[in-house]
Structure formats: structure tokens, C-alpha cells
Design brief:
single chain; mainly alpha; 5 helices
Length: 113
């Protein structure tokens, strides 16, 4: 898959500062142009259908149901949305433990506790 990265750079950190594959970036640019040409049409009339279409395509790829998928702005926001649903002990409970792998996002650990 082609990326728009400088060919002289070996880029390994797609997790924190990931570049979009070129076809994804091109589609993003087309949608951005459509939004700029007619914001009301795009946001008020097309956005929900476009999002549903994207969720349906992603669901097929993942083998999931579209209604079980949501889009979030970034990994930290997604993890925080999940963490917010985890029941927490009462405030007076002296010990809370969060077990995570060494690859978990630091920002998630900071706000999950």
C-alpha cells in the first residue's frame, strides 16, 4: 500500500502519528471538498448515510455488525469511551487496580484511573 511519506524516511510509528495510505487520503480529500462546496447538504443530509455506509463496509471486513461499530476521533477517545462504561468501585474503596499490557496508551492509563 502506498503512503505519501518521504521515501527517504523509514517510518515505523503508525500508532501515534500514522500516515494515511494514499487511496484513503485521496478519498478524504474528495469528501472534504464536497463538504466545503455545500456544508449544509453534506452535514445535514449526507453525513449519516455516508457514516452508515462506512460502518457497513468496515463491519464486513471485521466480521461484525454495523450497529456494533462506532467511529472515534482517535485511539485515546475510543479507549476512554470504553473505560467510561466500566463499573468503578465506590470512592471510599481504598484500592483500585487497572491491569494493562505494556503496549497500552499512556493517555488511557492516566484518565482511566
Amino acid at each position: 500500500m502506498d503512503f505519501l511519506l518521504d521515501p527517504g524516511v523509514t517510518f515505523l510509528n503508525h500508532g501515534s502519528y500514522g500516515a494515511c495510505p494514499a487511496p484513503v487520503f485521496e478519498q478524504y480529500q474528495e469528501l472534504q471538498r464536497e463538504l466545503e462546496r455545500n456544508p449544509v447538504e453534506f452535514l445535514a443530509r449526507r453525513f449519516d448515510a455516508l457514516t452508515a455506509e462506512s460502518r457497513a463496509a468496515l463491519a464486513v471486513y471485521l466480521g461484525a455488525r454495523p450497529d456494533d461499530l462506532v467511529f472515534v476521533p482517535n485511539a485515546t477517545a475510543g479507549l476512554n469511551a470504553i473505560a467510561a462504561t466500566i463499573p468503578r468501585p465506590a470512592v471510599h474503596t481504598p484500592v483500585r487496580t487497572l491491569i494493562a499490557s505494556s503496549t497500552v496508551l499512556c493517555a488511557f492509563l492516566l484518565c482511566a484511573c
